[in-house]
Amino acid sequence: LGSPEGAGSPLSRPPGVPAALLGSALLRRPAALGAAAARCAPARDSHGPARQGHGSSKAASLHWTGERAVSVLLLGLLPAAYLCPGPAVDYSLAAALTLHGHWGLGQVITDYVHGDVPNRVANVGLYVLSALTFAGLCHFNYHDVGICKAVAMLWSL
């Protein structure tokens, strides 16, 4: 136990484990390496104050509540689409599905698109995609069988 050779001595290590693998110096990050990593990839403070244009905590809370409300609405619309299909349910599904998808893809953009210009381009693309999705679903509801009937037709295959 109190050997003068220290932790790297052959008497204190398990058989077959080289002394170099047990040194505590290997577990510490060299100062030069830490400084180089800090220069190459500066840490982002994700818990800092909200950046300009990103709203307040109250707005974020209301947005979260809205997301939950739309999710619960979708849970209610699914049985309604089966039990009483019709234009009201078709258009409600079109709106709720589009909004749900818009918010979900918006979170993907927030998480993975960085920089002002790429973020703006991605958000404009998201709004165009959401508008086209809603317009397409409304067109399908008006000029074709509608969402409820189409899903029922798919299930009957």
From TrEMBL:
The signal peptide annotation in the UniProt record is none
> How is it placed in the membrane, per its record?
Multi-pass membrane protein
Matches recorded under PANTHER family: SUCCINATE DEHYDROGENASE, SUCCINATE DEHYDROGENASE [UBIQUINONE] CYTOCHROME B SMALL SUBUNIT, MITOCHONDRIAL
Give the UniProt keywords, A-Z. Electron transport, Heme, Iron, Membrane, Metal-binding, Mitochondrion, Mitochondrion inner membrane, Transit peptide, Transmembrane, Transmembrane helix, Transport, Tricarboxylic acid cycle
Spell out the Pfam families in the cross-references.
CybS
The job of this chain, per UniProt, is described as: Membrane-anchoring subunit of succinate dehydrogenase (SDH) that is involved in complex II of the mitochondrial electron transport chain and is responsible for transferring electrons from succinate to ubiquinone (coenzyme Q). SDH also oxidizes malate to the non-canonical enol form of oxaloacetate, enol-oxaloacetate. Enol-oxaloacetate, which is a potent inhibitor of the succinate dehydrogenase activity, is further isomerized into keto-oxaloacetate.
The primary gene name is Sdhd
Q: Provide the family line.
A: Belongs to the CybS family.
Q: Where in the cell is it found?
A: Mitochondrion inner membrane
Report any one BP term from Gene Ontology: tricarboxylic acid cycle
Question: Which species does the entry assign this protein to?
Answer: Copsychus sechellarum
**What Gene Ontology molecular-function terms does this entry list?**
heme binding; metal ion binding; ubiquinone binding
Q: Which Gene3D superfamilies match?
A: Fumarate reductase/succinate dehydrogenase, transmembrane subunit
**Where is a ubiquinone annotated to bind?**
Y112
Protein name from the UniProt record: Succinate dehydrogenase [ubiquinone] cytochrome b small subunit
Q: In which pathway does it act?
A: Carbohydrate metabolism; tricarboxylic acid cycle
Binding-site residues, heme b:
H100
Binding partners and assembly: Component of complex II composed of four subunits: the flavoprotein (FP) SDHA, iron-sulfur protein (IP) SDHB, and a cytochrome b560 composed of SDHC and SDHD.
What GO cellular component term, any one, is given? mitochondrial inner membrane
